[in-house]
Amino acid sequence: MCVKTTKPRAAAAVRIGARAALRERAGLLGALRPCFARTLVWLQAGKYLAAVMSDLPERNGWSIARHAGDKTPDKTQRLLNQASWDTMAAMSIVRRFAVAGLDEAARQARRAGGMRAGALDETGQEKHGTSTAGVKRQYMGCAGRVANGINTVHLSYVREGTGHALIGARQWIPASRSRTPSCR
Fold it and tell me: Does the CA dihedral 15-17-18-22 come out positive or negative?
């Protein structure tokens, strides 16, 4: 972290803030430990978490790998696509962490009584082909026409005057795609 100031109090506040952020990240990683059966997978998750919570200007497989000290994105790709870990429990822990962080920030800013809300957002994504789960020809706002695509619903926790955090997301599967064929 680079601080350009001649005011000692401002520089000290930045150092204390960075130390507190590292402590918070370590606490989150510790809370996530039971979600992972293998220590190496948990450690890779910690490197991924550090990269996601960093100030990387662009987050992609290669930039995350560089930040994590890995030669290629393979380890992170295995974490996200193949490793065995309890994703639902991990999402629940991260959700509680984000909500508690926003509530604490509101309390420190003396906005403890401020409005709290859940904000829903439906987002469409155009898809070519039919291999992606839930793909259907439908009106896609992002395309401005009827096209193949999927829809995802996102839920954010919002604290008035403090901020917001994504706390949930689910892909919407059209009823025509969720029916199972009957066996006779």
Answer: positive
